[in-house]
Specification:
heterodimer, A: alpha+beta, six-stranded antiparallel sheet, 25 helices, B: alpha+beta, five-stranded antiparallel sheet, 7 helices, 17 strands, 33% helix
Chain lengths: 678, 339
């Protein structure tokens, strides 16, 4: 047995194509040197195959492995055990293995690793285009596996490709059955997180200009599916973060995450804090499901006031919804928000203190203004109205590109520039409230959203980002006040798109095609339709987890018992197996003997049943002679039949001629008579 | 020693199991000159590569669970169902094949006997990488992609004279993915006649040194032409009167006179003090030599006698007698039993 196995050319070609296809999506997130190493190994492999380079020895290979590991350590540092590292190591490992193919087993190992590696892309992205692409890559890998087991000289790429595609296509029905019915198991251990990469979106600080930067992006922030009708735009304030600390210019949170009240504030909360127990859920519940794009942050978005039931979510005493782990992948959660609620009468002392905090110096004119206005106004409510009135009457402008502000940003905004975006209004409003002694805070999040007429979902994008304020009023609790509504009410009623579309900087970085799609009616419909498909894909395929599966089963079976599930699964599998069995195993195009031969063969079978089998290689003439010698009585018939058969088979007359047809009918008659005879 | 006893008992168990299996196979797949493979006689099991594939799938499944990735699950299930479909496809690659053996040519001991198997298909289905082998032969591969039938030649070493039964033919395939192995063990009722290995001896000296019935003279071909006689099957083609045939006078053989009786008897007793096999080998050599020189020869063995003649039919008959002489000769009990 030769120890050196030379991989056939076509198999090598398939394998390199497959590995390249599998590795391609990872190029964007792998370090440059990993990609280079991968390409180099592939190139080297081709050269080795052509005989121009000799394969590297074991010492060289060991050195390469050490270099790769060292490189990864340097690259990823502390995050060495993260998913990214593992994927990079896997890719380079496969590439190095390419250089060391001595036996059939090595080739098979690389192909199997290719299957494993194709799984890794789904950890990062599960969109429809990615799915179709990875399916194609898996198909290429399957072609490589098939090519290994076909005769080298006779195989054709198209034939291999077609057969592999056919087999994978036929595997889909069974795959669907297993996908729907196989129970989902909770993770066995926690996986290392991905290294943090910069993702745009709301941050946990706000300074003038931050929100207007987000207006340039049309990326989806999250999509919402309401159980009932979508509420009016004026209700759709998606609370994200509350910002308490102001340094004269920037609003930010207290450092670190707030201590969440408890890990799971569901109905079975074991350890509810007082402030949560004080909440009374009164009226107007709105139930919805949010599918959020990854942000690598902890905070989630919800309408006020959220009552959550899902594990892994928590709410803090600022009524901020947070996730236990950073949202690194698309994340789905169900919320019921109660618009009518009561959070008790007294404000926590610490929160009150924070919510009144202003920096020592700066913005003196605004403070004075606030104090004067508060004295004039009778109550807190009247003060608020007066401030809002000031915005609308004093020719304030709402613009995406306001003038830059300096150190005393509030003063400059209120008395000099008088032009700003929502963050300016929210910031200045909250400042004035605090200066007058009313606890207030800035809230950032999103407002409104696009309604998709096809599936009734609400699509909230980055350009829906918004900032507003909340003030604490005795007897009412935290009340939302949106100063932007005083200046540009159309922002709330009509939504962000219609409000901004005249502004030049709107969607400046979004790209030409997106803008085109929005203006053109047909394209717009297409765009919304694609959004629908994408939403359905995420909702029903990607998020098909235990909960969804259980709900699906309940709807299907009523009560869910293991027996029912097993029986259904078995039934489906059986049906699939039968259909596929018939499709695959049915005989294709039976080879047809000419009618004369068929007739003669029938005669031979008849003879065999009588005990006179025709020997293999025995001609009809010889057969006739032999049997005639044994049974002289049959000689006449036998010779007649044999002669007719010879004439039909070997004569020059074509099969359709009258003469041939006559002979055939005579032959058939003779055989039938013989059959009757015995 | 306990070790060797265990080995012995393990060996015995293996042989017992093998024997039981073979007798079951004999009942299930009876011998026939032509065999069509169908589900009754095709076995199918996963290969080692198939097991490795499932192992990798299991690892992928664990990864899918831990990363809670729906599409990863989908991929694992897709590959699993592909594995299950492979069962059908590998089976399909054998089912419907018709195998038959062509009449075998005899061989000499010490050379390789060739068995030619015809692989045919009845439908338009494509068959790829179908492997055929005997237990002591290399594997031959048949592909019925564009063709309706193909011939595969398998060579088995012929070590002893007599009938060579190569055993059951193993028809096997791993197509399409090497994850499953489908095979069948069929008996095509083929046997190859193995002549004794020719052992050189000094024929001239042998024949001249003995006195047998009739003069022994090895003059060939340089006698006078005496006349024509009717052609008898077996006459050398070198002696046919072609000119007469061309003139349409019929088929005649030229006769040469010689005043010697050219019939030679090859006798068992020509090789005293030798074992039976050696004698047979020498006799075989003599037959080949005499046949080449186109001399009539007869053979006399204990219990067998063949009257002198010449020609391919005669030599075939003589060699067959030499090959099959006393299978299970008492002098060499372990030889002669063709397996």
């Amino acid at each position: 047995m030769s120890t050196h196995f030379q991989i056939p050319r076509s198999s090598l070609m398939w394998m390199l194509c497959a590995l390249s296809a599998i590795a391609l999506p990872h190029v964007v997130r792998m370090p440059f040197w990993v990609t280079t190493a991968f390409v180099a190994c592939i190139g080297l492999r081709v050269l080795i195959f052509q005989g121009r380079v000799s394969p590297p020895g074991s010492k060289t290979r060991a050195l390469l492995v050490v270099m790769v590991l060292a490189g990864c350590m340097v690259q990823y540092g502390r995050n060495f055990l993260s998913t990214d590292t593992m994927v990079a190591v896997l890719m380079v490992g496969i590439a190095l293995k390419l250089l060391e193919m001595h036996s059939r087993r090595d080739v098979l190992l690389i192909i199997l690793l290719g299957y494993f590696a194709s799984l890794s892309e789904f950890i990062y992205s599960q969109t429809i285009p990615v799915t179709l692409y990875m399916l194609f890559a898996v198909l290429l890998n399957t072609c490589a596996l098939m090519s290994l087991h076909q005769t080298q000289e006779l195989q054709r790429p198209m034939r291999t490709f077609r057969l592999a595609s056919l087999i994978l296509l036929q595997s889909v029905p069974l795959m669907l059955v297993l996908f729907l019915l196989f129970p989902r198991i909770s993770p066995l251990w926690s996986m290392p997180t991905q290294s943090a990469s910069a993702i745009s979106g709301l941050s946990d600080s706000m300074q003038p200009g931050d929100i207007s930067n987000l207006i340039q992006s049309a990326d989806v922030a999250f999509k919402v599916q309401f159980e009932n009708d979508i509420p009016d735009n004026s209700v759709l304030y998606w609370r994200g973060l509350t910002l308490d600390l102001f340094n004269g210019r920037t609003w930010s949170r207290r450092s670190g995450r707030f201590d969440p009240a408890t890990q799971n504030l569901g109905e079975n909360a074991r350890d509810m804090r007082e402030w949560y127990r004080d909440i009374q859920w009164l009226a107007d519940p709105v139930a919805y499901n949010v599918i959020m794009e990854p942000t690598n942050q902890y905070w989630l978005f919800s309408l006020k006031l959220p009552q959550i039931r899902k594990n892994g979510l928590a709410m803090n005493n600022q009524y901020q919804l947070e996730s236990r782990v950073p949202v690194a992948q698309r994340y789905s959660y169900d919320v019921t928000s109660w618009q009518g609620h009561s959070v008790g009468d007294s404000l926590d002392a610490e929160i009150r203190r924070i919510s009144l905090l202003l920096p020592e110096n700066g913005n003196a004119r605004s403070r004075q203004f606030a104090e004067e206005l508060f004295v004039t106004a009778g109550s807190e409510r009247e003060f608020i109205d007066a401030v809002l009135d000031n915005y609308s009457r004093q020719q304030f402008f709402y613009t995406l590109t306001p003038r830059l502000l300096g150190e005393n940003s509030v003063d400059e905004f209120l008395f000099e520039s008088r032009e700003g975006f929502c963050e300016h209004y929210a910031s200045s409003f909250t400042f004035l409230m605090r200066a007058a002694g009313i606890p207030a805070r800035v809230v950032t999040g999103y407002q409104g959203g696009e309604r998709n007429p096809y599936d009734g979902t609400l699509i909230v994008r980055q350009f829906d980002a918004h900032a507003w304020a909340e003030v604490w009023l005795e007897g009412e609790g935290w009340v939302r006040v949106d100063p932007t509504a005083a200046v540009a009410p159309q922002r709330i009623t009509l939504g962000s798109e219609l409000t901004y579309q005249e502004d030049a900087s709107f969607l400046r970085e979004a790209g030409f095609t997106t803008l085109l799609m929005r203006r053109n009616l047909l394209f717009n419909k297409l765009r919304l339709y694609i959004e629908t498909v994408d939403y359905a894909w995420v909702r029903f395929v990607i998020n098909y987890d235990q909960g969804t599966q259980f709900a699906f089963f309940s709807r299907l079976f009523g009560s869910v018992t293991p027996l029912k599930v097993l029986a259904t699964a078995a039934a489906f599998v059986l049906v699939c197996a039968c259909v596929l069995g018939w499709v695959i195993l049915r005989p294709r195009g039976r080879k047809q003997h000419p009618p004369a031969t068929r007739c003669y063969l029938k005669f031979c079978m008849l003879m065999e049943s009588l005990g006179f089998a025709r020997r293999s290689g025995e001609t009809p003439g010889d057969f006739c002679d032999r049997i005639s010698a044994l049974n002289p009585a049959w000689e006449g018939t036998l010779r007649h039949i044999t002669r007719l058969y010879y004439e039909l088979t070997y004569s020059a007359a074509p099969a359709e001629s009258e003469q041939a047809r006559l002979r055939l009918s005579r032959l058939k008659k003779a055989v039938r008579q013989f059959q009757v005879l015995k | 020693m306990p070790g060797s006893a265990q080995l012995r008992s393990a060996g015995r168990l293996n042989r017992f199991a093998a024997k039981r299996f073979m007798s079951w196979v004999d009942r299930r797949i009876p011998p026939a000159r032509q065999v069509s493979l169908h589900h009754g006689i095709i076995f199918i099991l996963p290969t080692l590569q198939g097991a490795a594939f499932l192992l990798v799938l299991a690892m992928m499944f664990v990864a899918a669970i831990n990363y809670e990735s729906s599409l990863a699950f989908a991929l694992v299930f897709l590959l699993l169902s592909m594995f299950l479909l492979t069962i059908l496809y590998t089976f399909r690659n054998l089912s419907g094949l018709r195998l038959s053996a062509i009449a075998e040519q005899p061989a000499f001991a010490g050379t390789a006997a060739s068995f030619v198997i015809t692989v045919e298909r009845d439908s338009q289905r494509v068959y790829e990488m179908v492997g055929l082998r005997y237990s002591h032969s290399l594997e031959g591969v048949a592909d019925l992609i564009g063709t309706e039938a193909e011939r595969v030649t398998l060579q088995v070493d012929a070590s002893h004279r007599g009938w060579l039964d190569p055993g059951r033919l193993r028809v096997e395939t791993l197509f399409p993915f090497g994850l499953m192995r489908a095979w069948s063990l069929i008996d095509l009722k083929v046997r190859c006649l193995v002549y004794p290995r020719p052992l050189a001896c000094d024929l001239d000296w042998l024949l001249s040194a003995r006195a047998y019935s009739g003069q022994l003279n090895l003059q060939t071909g340089n006698d006078d032409f005496t006349g024509l006689r009717e052609y008898a099957p077996g006459d050398s083609l070198k002696h046919i009167a072609w000119k007469n045939l061309a003139r349409g006078q019929g088929l005649f053989t030229k006769q040469y006179s010689s005043n010697v009786d050219e019939r030679i008897w090859l006798d068992w007793e020509m090789f005293p003090d030798m074992g039976a096999e050696e004698r047979l080998s020498h006799l075989c050599y003599c037959v080949l030599e005499l046949d080449a020189r186109n001399i009539d020869y007869g053979v006399r063995l204990p219990g067998e006698e063949v009257f002198p003649a010449k020609g391919p039919v005669h030599s075939g008959k003589v060699l067959e007698i030499l090959a099959l002489y006393r299978q299970g000769n008492p002098e060499r009990p372990d030889q002669g039993a063709a397996v």
